[in-house]
């Protein structure tokens, strides 16, 4: 019975696809306000014990996955900067020394923020680590990725614009219920503290405590969004990205970048490039020069999958943030086609959308060729800003659905990008209303370097 319904629904979707090249989902989410969890919520609880480390999170700490940056906050005094770590088979405890800092934002003063990089870890190994030495120790664990190589299977989770609402909590729990997600590719807009008066940075702390249950155990790869800018000259806060850069470090130096806001990493069979939508990207700027030098370095024989993360989407058919990514698209899209990027993930729009493989690089101001065309060298563009923050869903779409838009739906959720080998990756999008096993949208990705055929779901002619 259920299967029949699914099949019929599938046929309707397929029919819709063949007619206009795109699907606007028939799924209608109940419209209800998206509210932030109150400060006394269970997920924001301060861990017990004097000066106990809180807001523990990890990210990749070098270029190829043998390093991990461990970050945490101590509330009462700096305490120790040391991370103790060991593997299951080898009980010898190693230690690494980090740094501590604090910052002020208007009348808020942060706790003691620690960052410590563990280096030269064994590949594909379960590690345990401890922070809070001398006061209250807390223990966590992570698994290092396999050695970088072309056929290494690896599964990434995709989350964006999470915030800290009751829906955010559902999205995170939904992602956690998938046992396969090994690393989160986070496409920007973290805490939404800036929606509070004076950008109340207490909401940065609550966000850190909320996400610890995942981010202390698997790396979250950070991208900066507009809610990380925190530029408020009216109250004397004139340095953009201050809270974000103090709290969330990235291994940018390892990829020759001069800013933590744009960088690259290799992980298993993927090469991941993170860009900043809110830093200068025009010709001659640091980000432009870095990306120009970076793309030729990607060796698809070593890392077949070329993935780009950014916050503001280049292709977006919602009436929210419409065309905000356009100027960056004009600058960089020809490179993405030339270097055959497999997929671009963005957030910003609080909804979900997947494009066909398209490009729009022929236009030169006078020739009138300004329509996106089907292009098998181009990436698929996915907007996954549907983490569930307090601003609510973007529901208003441009009509009719553009031909390049393969699937769009205004629901909260997350996605999974599961690399099988050098030619195939399976991608699924999971709306929060369904169980983890249900994929509301799914498609095979064929690698653009090793297997540049048209994917079976492609419908745009
Ligand atoms: C910061 O200033 C605002 C506005 O005056 C006030 O409501 C808030 O309580 C202050 N916070 C702290 C930590 O002093
Ligand atoms: C958040 O989700 C977790 C996991 O499902 C649950 O245990 C917790 O009670 C939730 N908290 C809130 C405030 O919704
Ligand atoms: C949707 O967006 C369009 C364009 O901004 C606007 O004209 C229209 O009123 C909006 N519709 C709703 C229901 O908000
Ligand atoms: C790659 O993975 C796909 C999907 O699982 C499979 O069909 C294909 O045979 C694999 N290729 C190789 C060379 O193993
Ligand atoms: Fe945003």
Automatic annotation (TrEMBL):
Q: Which GO terms describe its biological process?
A: cellular response to phosphate starvation
Which Pfam families does its entry note? Metallophos (PF00149), Metallophos_C (PF14008), Pur_ac_phosph_N (PF16656)
As recorded in UniProt, its EC number(s) are 3.1.3.2
Q: Which Gene3D superfamilies match?
A: 3.60.21.10, Purple acid phosphatase-like, N-terminal (2.60.40.380)
InterPro entries named in the record: Calcineurin-like_PHP, Metallo-depent_PP-like, MPP_PAP, PAPs-like, PAPs_C, PAPs_N, Purple_acid_Pase-like_N
Among SUPFAM superfamilies, the record links this protein to: Metallo-dependent phosphatases (SSF56300), Purple acid phosphatase, N-terminal domain (SSF49363)
- Output the superkingdom of the source species: Eukaryota
Asked if the record carries the keyword Cell inner membrane, the reply is no
Domain Calcineurin-like phosphoesterase, first and last residues per copy: 155-352
Key word Zinc present in the record? yes
Q: Which first-to-last residue range defines the signal peptide?
A: 1-21
Q: Please state every residue range assigned to the domain named Purple acid phosphatase N-terminal.
A: 53-144
Question: What is an example of a GO molecular function annotated in this UniProt entry?
Answer: acid phosphatase activity
- What are the annotated GO cellular component locations? plant-type cell wall
Q: Where is the Purple acid phosphatase C-terminal domain positioned along the sequence? A: 378-437
What are the alphabetically sorted keywords of the record?
Glycoprotein, Hydrolase, Iron, Metal-binding, Signal, Zinc
- Cross-referenced PANTHER family: ACID PHOSPHATASE RELATED, PURPLE ACID PHOSPHATASE 10
Q: What is this protein called?
A: Purple acid phosphatase
Q: Native species of this protein? A: Amborella trichopoda
């Amino acid at each position: 019975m259920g299967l029949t319904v699914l099949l019929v629904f599938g046929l309707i979707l397929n029919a819709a696809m063949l007619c206009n090249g795109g699907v606007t989902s028939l799924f209608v989410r109940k419209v209800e306000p998206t509210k932030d969890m109150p400060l006394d919520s269970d997920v924001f609880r301060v861990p017990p014990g004097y000066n106990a480390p809180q807001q523990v999170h990890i990210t990749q700490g070098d270029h190829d996955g043998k390093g991990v940056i461990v970050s945490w906050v101590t509330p009462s005094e700096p305490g120790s900067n040391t991370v103790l770590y060991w593997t299951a088979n080898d009980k010898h405890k190693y230690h690494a020394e980090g740094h501590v800092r604090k910052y002020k934002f208007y009348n808020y003063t942060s706790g003691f923020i620690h960052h410590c990089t563990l280096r030269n870890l064994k590949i594909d190994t379960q590690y345990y680590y401890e922070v809070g030495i001398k006061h209250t120790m807390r223990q966590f664990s992570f698994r290092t990725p396999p050695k970088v190589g072309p056929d290494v299977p690896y599964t990434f989770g995709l989350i964006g614009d999470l915030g800290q609402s009751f829906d955010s909590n559902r999205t995170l729990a939904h992602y956690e219920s998938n046992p396969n997600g090994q690393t989160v590719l986070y496409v920007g807009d973290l805490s939404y503290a800036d929606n509070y008066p004076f950008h109340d940075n207490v909401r940065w702390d609550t966000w850190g405590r909320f996400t610890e249950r995942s981010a202390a155990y698997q790396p979250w790869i950070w991208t900066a969004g507009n809610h990380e800018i925190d530029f408020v000259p009216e109250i004397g806060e004139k340095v953009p990205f201050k809270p974000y850069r103090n709290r969330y470090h990235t291994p940018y130096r390892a990829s020759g970048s001069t800013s933590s806001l744009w960088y690259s990493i290799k992980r298993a069979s993927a090469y991941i490039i993170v860009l900043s939508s809110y830093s200068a990207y025009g010709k001659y700027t640091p980000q432009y020069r870095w990306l120009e030098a970076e793309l030729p370095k990607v060796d698809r024989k070593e890392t077949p999958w070329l993935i780009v993360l950014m916050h503001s989407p280049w292709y977006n058919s919602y009436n929210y943030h419409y065309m905000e990514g356009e100027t960056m698209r004009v600058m960089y899209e020809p490179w993405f086609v030339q270097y055959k990027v497999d997929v671009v993930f963005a957030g910003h729009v609080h909804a979900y959308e997947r494009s066909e493989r398209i490009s729009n690089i022929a236009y030169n101001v006078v020739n009138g060729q300004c329509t996106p065309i089907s292009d098998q060298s181009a990436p698929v563009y996915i907007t996954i800003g549907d983490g569930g923050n307090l601003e609510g869903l973007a529901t208003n779409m441009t009509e009719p659905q553009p031909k390049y838009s393969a699937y769009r739906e205004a629901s909260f959720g997350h996605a999974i990008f599961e690399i099988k080998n050098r030619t195939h990756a399976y991608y699924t999008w999971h709306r929060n209303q369904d169980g983890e096993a249900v994929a509301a949208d799914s498609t095979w990705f064929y690698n653009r370097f090793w297997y540049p055929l048209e994917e079976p779901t492609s419908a745009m002619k």
